Amino acid sequence: MDSEPTDNDGEADRYRAPALDKGLDILELLSEQKSGLTRAEITKMLGRNASEMYRMLERLVARQYVVRSPEGDRYSLSLKLYALAHRHPPMNRLISEALPVMQRFADAAEQSVHLVVYDRGNLLVIAQVDGPGTWGISVRLGSRVGLIDTGSGRVMLAFQTDEQREHMLAEHTKVKGEIALDRAVLDADYRQIREAGYSKKDSQQTFGVTDVTFPLIGPSGQAIAALTCPYMRRIDEYVAPSIGDVTALLKDAAASLSMMHD
């Protein structure tokens, strides 16, 4: 596991820290266990030798990232990582990183844009930026919108594991005005959205609006949020960016925010 990097290992292996990797391997392994593991189990599951695992576990216990069972033979995660994460709430990080990107998009696309996350069965609007023009459509910050019949919801569901999608659908409750849709139609939509990488669909809430939505992909490959532009086409003499241009701009905005929130 600690072999020298080859030419194919790429940029990520230029600066290796084997000891750090061992510690992170232990933390990630213990995060998946409900009742902890013995040192022998950890050693076997990680393919390491016993002495290096002993030293690493002792340091993790000393730094309070890992705790021993009262009997002393099993190791499990403490709450320290949880506490560290909540010193700098991920939601605040996401919003602070997203807002400048969203503002640049709105200025270039001349359209509004909003960011949603999944929250207890539906979607929560956590950031909203208006376009620079006289006309536009915006979604109120802090509002809850439907999981099933919105572009944002379809994209959030499309970019999940099957297990996580089922959990989200089971937790879902209808919001005001939400349209009930056939499960077979939804499943077909998820496949199509995954293949395309995004959703472009006439709004099912407002006439004359085309919702363009891209996922923000987290380190595990699932959507952690969705970025949506409710596109309104100008019909006067002013030449605004086309829906094709807007889609390209939104794709770049979403890509710049993806894989950042580990």
UniProtKB/TrEMBL annotation:
Domain HTH iclR-type, chain residue ranges per copy: 17-79
GO molecular function, one term: DNA-binding transcription factor activity
GO terms of biological process kind: negative regulation of DNA-templated transcription
Record domain IclR-ED: where: 80-262
InterPro entries: GAF-like_dom_sf, HTH_MetabolicPath_Reg, Tscrpt_reg_IclR_C, Tscrpt_reg_IclR_N, WH-like_DNA-bd_sf, WH_DNA-bd_sf
Superkingdom in the source lineage: Bacteria
UniProt key word GTP-binding: no
Pfam family, any one: IclR_C
Keywords from the named record: DNA-binding, Transcription, Transcription regulation
Protein's UniProt name: IclR family transcriptional regulator
Organism: Caballeronia ptereochthonis
